[in-house]
Amino acid sequence: MPSTPLPPTGGARPLRVAVIGYTGYSGIELVGLLERHAAVSLLLLDHRAAKDSALDASPVPCGLPTPSGRAHAPWSPSAIRDHQIDLVFTATPPEVSLDIIPEILRSGARAIDLSGAFRLRDAGQYQRWYKAAHTQPDLLAQAVYGLPELYREKIVDARLVANPGCYPTAAICALWPLLKADLVDRAAGVVCDAKSGVSGAGKSPSPKTHFVQISENFSAYAILEHRHVAEVLNNTGLDESEFSFTAQLLPIQRGILATNYLRLKKPATLDEIQAVYRAAYSGAGFVRLYPPGGQPQLSVVNHTNFCDIHCTLGSDGRRLVVVSCIDNLIKGAAGQAVQNMNVMFGLEESTGLLA
Amino acid sequence: MPSTPLPPTGGARPLRVAVIGYTGYSGIELVGLLERHAAVSLLLLDHRAAKDSALDASPVPCGLPTPSGRAHAPWSPSAIRDHQIDLVFTATPPEVSLDIIPEILRSGARAIDLSGAFRLRDAGQYQRWYKAAHTQPDLLAQAVYGLPELYREKIVDARLVANPGCYPTAAICALWPLLKADLVDRAAGVVCDAKSGVSGAGKSPSPKTHFVQISENFSAYAILEHRHVAEVLNNTGLDESEFSFTAQLLPIQRGILATNYLRLKKPATLDEIQAVYRAAYSGAGFVRLYPPGGQPQLSVVNHTNFCDIHCTLGSDGRRLVVVSCIDNLIKGAAGQAVQNMNVMFGLEESTGLLA
Amino acid sequence: MPSTPLPPTGGARPLRVAVIGYTGYSGIELVGLLERHAAVSLLLLDHRAAKDSALDASPVPCGLPTPSGRAHAPWSPSAIRDHQIDLVFTATPPEVSLDIIPEILRSGARAIDLSGAFRLRDAGQYQRWYKAAHTQPDLLAQAVYGLPELYREKIVDARLVANPGCYPTAAICALWPLLKADLVDRAAGVVCDAKSGVSGAGKSPSPKTHFVQISENFSAYAILEHRHVAEVLNNTGLDESEFSFTAQLLPIQRGILATNYLRLKKPATLDEIQAVYRAAYSGAGFVRLYPPGGQPQLSVVNHTNFCDIHCTLGSDGRRLVVVSCIDNLIKGAAGQAVQNMNVMFGLEESTGLLA
Amino acid sequence: MPSTPLPPTGGARPLRVAVIGYTGYSGIELVGLLERHAAVSLLLLDHRAAKDSALDASPVPCGLPTPSGRAHAPWSPSAIRDHQIDLVFTATPPEVSLDIIPEILRSGARAIDLSGAFRLRDAGQYQRWYKAAHTQPDLLAQAVYGLPELYREKIVDARLVANPGCYPTAAICALWPLLKADLVDRAAGVVCDAKSGVSGAGKSPSPKTHFVQISENFSAYAILEHRHVAEVLNNTGLDESEFSFTAQLLPIQRGILATNYLRLKKPATLDEIQAVYRAAYSGAGFVRLYPPGGQPQLSVVNHTNFCDIHCTLGSDGRRLVVVSCIDNLIKGAAGQAVQNMNVMFGLEESTGLLA
Fold it and tell me: Based on the domain organization, do B99 and B49 belong to the same domain?
């Protein structure tokens, strides 16, 4: 496919943004969000011999010419410079991100990486959970964990943002306020029982994502061993021995519902617990709290960038169940990446993320 | 619930629009489209003691006050006048529409009715297919059938638009161009085998829409007897003896795929057939044509106002299969209603209907 | 519908069994199991003016006469005597069971009740969790909890068996062996995060079980308050303050997967834990244990009477996750009821329950 | 995996049956049916280095030894002789069946092939629809088409039975009686609009069967070009120019519903039409006819070997809609294969096929 230049821009220069890895579920979602984002001019960079195959067999409005397709170019460091790209999103496997992120940064662009390559603390932790050597330990040390609800101020100046994993986004948003306020009996253990839609398992066909395997079924996997556990520990302060995490596969396309169980150090009321969340997220437009009596469910959060939180307290005032819900492809991936972009470039945080 | 006034409007006066019947699937979809429509100011009119119950248990953004809810008022003819409503959408059962549409029109507003009350030719036809007397035969005679692809010019001046049924929208868009061009061997019969998502069966709980009944199942109903048949006959010119229609229930939420079978009077090429569609819909932005080789499917048309059309010709050049796809709640209901509104009030036809 | 007598029986007299309440999901499943059970002669008793409506519109083999239908009679205490019924299954709401069980027992038959009417400890506990007065406290005291894996010997002689709830069956089978062996740090709390298919919510149409509400969705309900909690406490010895239970609704027809989290008093190995289960269930043909490395899932247990158990131990040897899977309509209802019948009448426990 | 011998058999010698290709959906279903078949002793033959991997991670009943697995041996012509196999089922791709069926027959066993290799009339027809040369034209000429409802008497003596395709089974059962009785206006064309569950697309992972692609979607494919068309033509006498066939993919696991449209030569009554079916299938226990007013659906036919037929006649007495339903894996594959085996070996035709 020949390279197509970005349209010339006049007046208030839009943000010049590139996406590498736009054929997976997160990449597709990200391109959709960026195309509707008013302040962005988008370029697709083809890392492998990619092909915008969707165009071939798609229906075309009658009486209109065939659409010309999106601006794109082959990936290379010079493409970043030639197109004066301000920011590159990489929605690539971690080993690819490790390869290309250094070149992107050297070419003068900032980067938001949607893989797990730059989310952990150091090379040792990466080796343990990803079973692979980390080839860029210096960049790993510089990367900022891109959960704006916790790290907004660091994100503003970050050159490299590690966009959080989907499960950790749901778990950390639910657990962090209570742990920060030191309300939790950590010795009793914290449980996060998480359920995800199938898009979280990626787009590559496999026996595990075949329709006949998934429909009318439900399964647990990677019990206590999921590589996302490390992100949760790093960003909540929990020790591994204090945290039990199970990942489970729902027969739906998208959405994560995490049911978190905590024991409070001393009895509290539901009002007090909800006040803790309101305080922690007073500046966070994308965290919503269920009123008492609501029934948490995925359908109201899917296709949005919200993280919904629902609390139930036992009659003893100490057993606490916190349900958190996100769309794994939006708040758990592409939406959060756009939210990070907005923070990095001084745009209103919700630009392009509300309906 | 106390009445809340519409916000005051200054500068270019927006269209003042009311919706009666906003709790069913079409009504909910319609309210969502109108809230995002830049040229519209929306008022909900409560026909029965309705309650915007969704607000009670919905999650609320942290640190923000509880949302005040949408502007609404009790339905009455005077509410139309007091709020200077230009247009009322009725997403009500046909018997309710027959009651309130006359009052709406007398109050000076125009109306788009989403029920079947005003879609047929005359009271006799209504009696036959709806098994009920039509109480407003004069209004029935005045009503314009709201399929803009066929009747755009009549819709411009209509006081009452009868928004088409979902199945007829899919069937007529597929069949009309070929019949108009007199290419079809009508004596051989025309078949429309239609499949719909469950939202088409309405929101009232029933054994027929219970999850356990629908999932892992597929069924045919109202074979050759569906009340939507009359709309198709009226707007294609087919006789009942020339048309076979089957409705079927898919285990999905939304979307209609209709597989239409026709026999051509004389052999044609696929290019010729596609040219007929392009000519018929040269001014229609919402009809899309699949290129040869594409595979028609609901996922690319759902959540849009498009009607996608896909043609396959047999090796004899006479057996023709035309697949048409719509979202039953958008092009088959709420989106088409907004499209009609745009036509009636001189707005760009696609306003509020793209993305 | 006229009463049809049971077929005469000669030779080894089969067990004469009646079912009251055969139109709900559990009742339908139960009738299917009993019809295939070689040692049983089945009579349906119509409690309300019921109608075997399935027969009317069902397809009929060509060339065969219309099937005569199943033996049935109006419910009355004398029907039990007239038909010499040995055992009555009641798959009725608890308030109906409270009414008719005393009459059944007085008529000389034994009874297995599938409702919650006779599962709890005493009238006070029933009042608390069912928000209703228990009208048969004496029978409640006599009833035997019908979980054969725990109470086989009491069931042998029981006149009234309270068939366990679906969630409690999954939870108790997972938790009881470890608690009995005193391995659990109860002070740290025990979590049961349970997910059920929609048939568990019953057959009556409701907004909560509409296909459009359930599909592509997942929700939590009755968090910490589900009435099934009391059954789990009674049969594991846990105190309410030690147990956190969440019920959740899966977009599938059937199956319960419960993910249970426990903290061990002192570190153990997975082999030791599995040995505890093997010992506890050495005589239990219907409890299966996953080998290490398996991935627990509903598809292998659905449509069977098995309860599958899968254990994962954290690297500290103390965090333990026990996943238990059952078919809520079989091991969680009708299959367990047949298993109880087999135990009560000296039949091989698995008769009629293996494919 | 070491070879395990068939258990020794005494008294009435069971039928000695082998299956080659037991890991696909049809093969798994077939093995399940044969294991429950009272008159059969089953051997699995491993064509490629296969592995009964299901055993590794499956749950095992507590207190019982690990199951030893099924009898199996490496495929070779001598294995047929050594194990004195009477009948071999091949559930293999057509190119594999073409290779191994000659060797099976030469080894003295009879064969039922579930692939498309031997279903068509001659090598020319095979070349046209399968786009490949047929390497065994002589065997093709000898093979009997295994639809017992039409060809029972030929099947009795057949050495090689070609088990029909799933779509053709549904189409032929619906169309054949009316065409045989010469009631159909063939010039007007016959339509078969068929919808299948995803297991019909096979077990190999592909983008087309990914859960995210299938769920909440519905698509048409191979319109007018499906290779199953030739089987329908051969067995109904229709010409290609008289028959329009569309295959469509339902978001369910199993089941085919085919909606067939015919025009009668002269007006008839529904009673007359149903009498034609009853006469055609007077000896066919597996074809069932819906009474007038029923609503055809997959849930009542799935997991059975029945083919259900439902007729609707237009008010003109000439437009006829015939809906036929089968389970694609049972009557459309494995169940029909067992039915053929029963016919070939003089067993009651329904042995092992009625729950």
Answer: yes
